[in-house]
Amino acid sequence: MVFTRLSDRRLESAWGRMARACLTFALLAISFEYAAVSPAAAQGAVKGKFGDWEMRCETPPGASREQCALIQSIAAEDKPNVSLVVIVLKTADGKSRLLRVVTQLGVLLPAGLGLKIDNTDVGRAGFVRCLATGCVAEVVMEDKLIDQLGKGQTATFIVFNTPEEGVGIPMTLAGFKEGFGKLP
Q: How far is residue 21's CA from residue 26's CA, in Å, rounded to a whole number?
């Protein structure tokens, strides 16, 4: 399979709408208030590009300041039903750093989401919920994971369709360290 970052043109597709909805989810979840928001209402302003990552920011309803997240969307060119939106953010209180990955509906939830960084197995994260736009896996990022992502070249996320069939989706880490350092 060949994977690629979603281009600006493709962001207007259904997966683009998913990416915007996931950004809305990520930014609202920073303050731990989950709310239903239409995808078109919360695109977030692009505040910077760091390699293959975008920093998008907006002020969620009720928040006193702007909230930002690093985002990268990837999809399989030859298998359009396999895609991910990867979101990295700091919580509003500044105490936690979160990695959220949203994938298409239909994945095997008990298997979780696997992660390898430069062919080193990092582990699996459980899915925390499924929305109309996809299923969300989330982990609190410890310093070790942040360091691995900052020094790595490629992260491969693995989703499972069956217990035996994992689909690896590679993603470049170019710009992660710089972008993460700029998150407010």
A: 9
| Cβ proximity of 156 and 171 under 8 Å | yes
Give the burial class of 143: count Cβ atoms within 10 A of its Cβ; 0-12 exposed, 13-18 middle, 19 or more buried: exposed
Residue bearing tokens 């069939």: 165
Residue 171, pLDDT score: 93
Query: Could you give the CA distance from residue 64 to residue 104 in angstroms, rounded to a whole number?
Result: 32
The CATH T-level fold of domain 3-182 is Immunoglobulin-like (2.60.40)
pTM for the complete prediction?
Answer: 0.76
Average pLDDT (104-133) is 93
Cβ distance 172 to 157 under 8 Å? no
Integer distance in angstroms from the first to the last C-alpha of the chain? Answer: 36
Query: Tokens representing 173?
Result: 């880490």
CA distances from 33 to 57, 132, 169 (A): 17, 18, 30
Confidence of residue 75 (pLDDT cuts 50, 70, 90): confident
Q: Rounded to an integer, what distance in angstroms lies between the CA atom of residue 180 and that of residue 131?
A: 26
Give me the percent of the chain exceeding a pLDDT of 90.
53
CB 136 within 8 A of CB 102: yes
Residue in the structure block whose two tokens are 């979840």: 29
Higher pLDDT, 78 or 35: 78
Three-state DSSP state, 169: strand
